[in-house]
Amino acid sequence: MTAYILQRLIQSILVLLAVSVVVFLAVYGIGDPIELLVPPQVSAAERTAMIQRLGLDLPVWQQYLSFLGNALKGDLGHSFVHGVPAVDLILARLPATFELVLLAMGLAAVIGIPLGLLAGLNPESRPSRAIMAGTILGFSLPSFWKGMMLILLFSVFLGWLPTAGRGETVSVFGIPTSLLTLDGLKHLALPALNLAIPNMALMIRLVAAGTTEAISQDYVKYARAKGVRRKRIVGRHVLRNILIPVVTVAGMEFGSLVAFSTITETVFAWPGMGKLLIDSVYQLDRPVVVAYVMLATLLFVAVNFLVDILYAALDPRVKLTGEMA
Amino acid sequence: MNPSRTATSAVAADADTALRQKVLRRIRSRPTTRGAVILLGILLLLALLAPFIAPQNPHDLASLSVMDNRLEPGSQGMTGITYWLGTDAQGRDMLSAILYGLRTSLLVGLTSTAGALAVGILAGLTAAQFGGAVDAVIMRIVDFMLGFPSILIALVLLASIGRGVDKVIVAIILVQWAQYARLMRAAALVERRKEYIEAAVNFGLPTRHIMLAHLLPNSIGSVLVVSTISIAGAITLEATLSFLGVGVPVTQPSLGLLIANGFEFLLSGEYWIAAFPGIALVLLIMSLNLVGERLRRSFNVRG
Amino acid sequence: MHRTLISAFIAGTCLLSAPAWAQSLKIALSSEPTAIDPHYHDLTPNNALIAHIFDGLTKQDENQKVLPNLATSWENDGKTRWTFKLRQGVTFSNGQPFTADDVIFSFCRTLKNETAIAGSFADITGNFTAVEAPDSHTIVITTKAPDPLLPNFLSGLAILSSSIVPHDKLAFDAAKNCGVTGTWPVVGDFNDGKLAIGTGPYKFKSYTKGTSVELERNDKYWGPAEPWANVTFVPVPNAGPRLAGLLAGDYDVIENPAARDVSRIRDDKRFGYVIMPSTRVIYFQLDVEREPSPFVKAENGKNPLKDPRVRKAMSLAIDRDAIIKRIMDSAAEPAYQFLPNGMFGALANPPKLAYDPAAAKKLLAEAGYPNGFQLTLSTTNDRYINDSQITQAVAQYLTQVGIRSEVDAMARAIYFPRRSKKEFSVALGGWGSTSGEASSFLRQWPATPDEAKTIGGSNYGGYNDPEFDKLIRTAIVTLDDAKRAEILQQAGTKVLEGGAFIPLHFESTIWAYKANLKYAGRADQFTMAMQVKSAK
User: Fold this and answer.
1) B73-112 pLDDT, tens digit each
2) Strand bridging mode C128-132 / C138-143
3) Which of C191, C214, C249 is where one domain is finished?
4) B121 CB neighbour count, 10 Å cutoff
5) Which spans in C185-319 are helix H?
C-alpha cells in the first residue's frame, strides 16, 4: 500500500511538473509582454531596467527554473499588469465563479434528475424520446452562441433580464455574493442557465441510463411483483441506484466548471476566474496564466490522488500496481 | 461539452455485414434520424455547391461594398443585388457568407477529424502493440491531453502561430487525437488477445504487418463510429476559437467567425448578423450529432 | 473574531437596504484602472482615476491646454532651469500641509519605484539634474536637456504626501535614497487606501478589483467644493451592458457607448450625450525600407511601397468619409494630418485627402504597376475602435484599384510584439498625443531612431528623411512656443508629403448621461467626476 501511494504521489508530481513546463512555454510563445506593458516612447534604458526586473532577459529555461524555485516556496509570482500577487487576483475572482457554478449545477440537478427519471422509466414513450432528443440539442448548441441567443431573447426582445455583468453584491462573512439580492439573481440567471444546459443534458442521460438499468434488475422486478407502489420503488430503489454515479459526475463537472467556465463568463462579461484567465492570456500576464493553470491542475491532481488512494484502500480488487484507466 | 467526454472505456463490437444492415434499417425507421441524415445531406450539398449558388463571392473583397453594410434582411444593395438575409459589417451578403462559411466549417471539421484519427489510431495501435514503456509514455501523454481543457490548449497554440484554416486544423488535431488513441488502444488490446494474432506472432510475422494487416482493420470500427460525433465537436471547437478571436482569417469567415462578428451588433438590434449563421451552425452540429449518436448506439460503442 | 463577523454581517445588511442617496454619482467605465498607486502605470484609465485623488503641479483642461494646479505659476530661464511657485494653504486629506518637501518626495519616488511599469514618469524625473527648494513653496528644477513640454508632462505626475513614509531631511538625490529612512511604498500598498493620500477634490474610500472604486468628497480640498458627496466607478468592459445599465437607471454617466447605439439615446428625453473628437489618430504605417517586404508581392519582385506614387495612390484609393459613416457611425473625424486642427503645432488647413480611385489607378500605372500587386494589411482586433473592420474596409478599397489585399487581424498581445520586430509591411497604428502637441507623434513614429530610443522608437517602417529629422530634433528642444509651433508645422508637412504614413481618422470619444446631468467631454478621453455638472 505504501509503495502504491508513493508511486501515485510521484506520478502526480510528474504531472504537475509537466503541466508547468507546457503552460510556461506556451504562454512564453505567444509574445513578449514588454511590448504590451511598456509604452513605445519609453527610453531604452528604462525598458531594459524593466526587462531585467521581471527577469525577461534570461533564457527561458532559467526563467522557468526561477519560477519553479519560487513556486516551491509557495510564491507563484506577481501579476505583470496589476503588480500584486497572482494568487490574490485569482482568489478575488473565486466567489463570482463559485456562485455561478453553484446555481448552474443546482438548476441542472433540479430539472435534469426528474426529466431523466421520466425518460428512464418509459424509454420508448414519446415524451421520453423527445427528452432524449432534447439532450442532443443541449450538447450540440455551442456555448457562446447559446449565450448570445439567451441575451437576444431575454434581454433584447423581452427586456426581462440584464444583458451581462454581475449585479449588486452583499457581503456574507466577508465574502461578496450576489445570490442574496434581487438584482444579483437577475444578473446570474442567464449565465447560470447557459452553463446549466449542457449539464442538464448530461444529468438526464446519466439518470435515464441508471433508471433503465435499475428497473430491469431482479430486486426491483420482485418488488413490483410484490405490489410495492411505483413511487416507493422509484424513491427507494431506483434513486438510490443512480445517486452515486450522478453525484460523482456532478462533482467532477463542478470542479471543471469552476476552473474553466471561460466561454460563458466571456459572453456575459461575468467577473469570474474564467474571464480573468482569458483576459490574462490576451494581456500576456504570464504569472497569472501560469499560476491559474497550476492551481487548477493541483486541485484536480490532488482530488484524483485522494480518490485513487481511497479506492485502493476500500476495494481490494483494485490491482495496486496496475493502471487505473 | 461533448457526450464523449464522459468516456472512460470503450468496447469494440463486431462490425459485420448483418449488423451494418440492421443499422441502416434502424436509421430508416427512426424519423428523427432519417431527418438528420437528409438534413446533413442537404448541408453537405450546399457547402459543395456554394461557389455556384451563392449570389456573391464573399471572399472576394472587390465584390463587397462597405456602403452596403449592416442592411436588414431583404434589403436592396447599391448594385441592385437583394440581400435576403441582410449584410454584415463589411457589406457581405449573409446568405453567401453562410454558404461559404458552411464550406469552411465542414472543411475544418472533416480534415481535422481525419488528421486526429490518423494520429490517434497510430498512437493507440503502437501503445497496444508494444505495451510496456512505450504504452506508458503514450498513455500518460494521452491522459495529460485529456485532462486539459481543449479550448485552452488550442487558444494558446493559435495565439502563438496565428490565423489560418490550416493552422486551426493543426490545433484541433492536436487536442483531439488523444481520445482516439485511447479508444484505439482499448479496442486493439481486446483484439490482440485473440488467438489468430497470437498465432501470427508465433509464426514470426513482422510486427508492422501484424499491426497494419490484422490489428488495425479488426479494431478500427469503434473509433470510426465515434468520429462522427467528433466532427461535430471539431466544428464547435473551430467556431468557439473564432469567437475568441483566433482561428480562420477575417476575410474568409467560417460560421463561427460570422457569429462572433455579429455579437457586438446583437444588442443594437442587428440580430441577423449573428442569428442566421448560428442557425446554420446548430443545424449542422445537430444533424451530425443525431446521426453519430444513432451509429454509436447501433454498434453499441461506449465512447 | 466574533465581533468582526457580526460587523461584516451588519455591513452586508446595510448595503442591502441603503437607498441611493442624493449627491452620489455612479459612473460606468469601459476599462478598469489597474491600480490606485498613481506612479504605477501611465495609462488613460489610471490617470483619469488618480486625478480625482491627487493633484499634479499642473493640469490639462478638456482641450489639453496646461493650467496651474498645485503650482500657481512657473517660468523658465530660456535654457534648462524651471522655477515653480507652489500654492499656499493646501492640505492633504490626512491634514498634513502641502510643501515643497512633498514635491521632492514624489519626484524621488518615481525613481525609487520598484514595482512601476517602465515609462511611468521615471523618464521625466530621470531628465532632472537637480531639484531644489529655496523656500517651502518654491521648487527649482534643472533638466539635462531643454524640455519645453515639462509643464505638460508634470500634469500627470501626482504629488504624494511625504508623510506616508518615515524620512529625514528630503533631498532630490536618488543615490542617497533622497533622505527616506523607511521602505519605499510599492503598488499593492495603495490598494487599501492607507497611502492613497492626496490633495485632490476626492478621497479614496474603497477599491475592489473588477467590481468598483469608491470615492468621497474631500472636505479639505483647496478649490471649490465638489457637488458630489460620493462617486462610484464601476468597470463594465462590454459596450452593450454599459448602455443597458444607463437605460435601466443603474448608472448616471457612462463612457464609450458604441457609436451605433447613439441613435437609441438621441431620441430619448431621459438621456443626453456628447461626442468629443480626441487626439487619437488612426493610420497605416508602410514599410518603405525593405526590399522585398514580407507581405508585399509584386510581379517585378520589388517593394512597391518604396515608390511615393504608390503610397499616394493608396491614400487616394481610400474613401475616408465612407469609413467614418458606415463603420465608425460618424463618431470620428477624417484625418488629413496627425493631430487635429487647432492643436499646438498642427497645420491650420491641411490639404484634404480626397477619394479618387481613377487617379489612384493612374498613379499606379505610372509607377509601373498597372495590374496592381498583392498586399497583406496587418491589424489589431481589440485595440482601437473597430480596428479590424476599418482595415477590412481599406482592403476593399485597395482591392478595387487593383492592389489585391488580404487582412491579418490579431489580438494586440500578438500584434504589438510582432510589429516591434518589423514583421509587417502595412500595419495599422493609433496614437493619442498625451502632451496635446504635434511633437508627440512626429518624434515617435517618422523620426529616425536615436540610440537611447527617446525619438523614433516606433519607426517600424524604416522611414528616413534627413530634413525632417533635423526639424523634429530642433523642435523638441525649442523653448519658444511660436518658433516651436512653426517648426512642428514644417515637420508635419514633410511627413505628409512623404506618404509613408496614411492617416485615416481621429477617433471621437462618446459619453452618455442622465438628462439631469451634463458632461463636457475631454480630448484626452478622461472620464472625471469633477466635470459632471448638474444640468439645472
Assistant:
1) 988 888 788 899 999 988 899 999 999 999 999 999 999 9
2) antiparallel
3) C191
4) 23
5) 239-247, 262-266, 308-317
Q: Is residue C312 part of a domain?
A: yes
Q: Are the beta carbons of C410 and B162 separated by less than 8 Å?
A: yes
Residue C185 sits in the same domain as residue C283: no
State the CATH number of the domain containing residue C491: 3.10.105.10
Note whether C60 and C176 are same-domain residues. yes
CA closest to B244 among chain C residues: C411
Query: Rounded distance, CA C321 to CA B66, Å?
Result: 11
d(CA A226, nearest CA chain B) in Å: 34
* Residue C63 is assigned to a structural domain of this protein: yes
B147 touches chain A (CB under 8 A): yes
Q: Which residue has the cell 492536436?
A: B174
Confidence of residue A120 (pLDDT cuts 50, 70, 90): confident
Structure ipTM: 0.81
Q: Is residue C103 part of a domain?
A: yes
Q: How many CB pairs under 8 A join B and C?
A: 75
CA distances in angstroms from B142 to B110, B119, B147, B178, listed in the order given: 22, 12, 8, 5
Long-range contacts made by residues B139-148, C-beta under 8 angstroms, separation at least 24?
Answer: B139/A323, B139/A325, B139/B181, B139/B182, B139/B185, B141/B178, B142/B178, B142/B181, B142/B182, B143/A15, B143/A325, B144/A15, B144/A18, B144/A19, B145/B175, B145/B177, B145/B178, B146/B178, B146/B179, B146/B182, B147/A15, B147/A297, B147/A300, B148/A19
Instruction: Tell if the CB–CB gap between A152 and B266 is shorter than 8 Å.
Output: yes
Q: Cis peptide leading into A59, omega within 30 of 0? A: no
Partner-chain residue, chosen from B162, B163, B250, that has the shortest CB–CB distance to C392: B250
Question: Which of C156 and C535 is assigned the larger pLDDT?
Answer: C156
Residue C251 sits at the chain A interface (C-beta within 8 Å): no
Q: Is the pLDDT of residue A155 over 90?
A: no
The answer to whether A16 touches A301, Cβ cutoff 8 Å, is: yes
Please report residues of C whose CB lies closer than 8 A to that of A96: 210
Q: What is the model's pTM?
A: 0.87
**pLDDT for the residue numbered C72:** 97
Higher pLDDT among residues C304 and A27, named by residue: C304
C268-324 tens-digit pLDDT: 899 999 999 999 999 999 999 998 899 999 999 899 999 999 999 999 999 999 999
Of residues C69, C32, C254, the one with CA closest to residue C156: C69
Residue with C-alpha cell 472587390?
B62
Q: Which residues of A touch C418 (CB under 8 A)?
A: 31
Same domain as C159, residue C284 = no
Q: Inform me whether the C-beta atom of residue C237 falls under 8 Å from chain A C-beta atoms.
A: yes
DSSP C177: G
Q: Same structural domain for residues C457 and C326?
A: yes
| Residues C193-248 pLDDT 10s | 889 999 999 999 999 887 889 999 999 999 999 999 999 999 888 888 788 889 88
CA distance A59 to chain B (A): 18
Alpha-carbon span B161 to B223, nearest angstrom = 30
- Is there a domain that residue C306 lies in? yes
pLDDT for B47 equals 93
Tell me whether residues C210 and A93 touch, CB distance under 8 A: yes
Highest mean pLDDT: which of A192-196, A241-245, A321-325? A192-196
CB contact under 8 A, B232 and A140: yes
Q: Which of C157, C191, C225 is the last residue of a domain?
A: C191
Same domain, C176 and C291: no
How many domains, chain C? 2
Which domain covers residue C132, as residue numbers? 35-191
Contact B61 C395 (CB under 8 A): yes
With residue C29 as reference, give the H or E element that holds it: strand C24-29
CATH number of domain containing C110: 3.90.76.10
Half-sphere exposure of A282 (CA within 13 A, CB side): 16
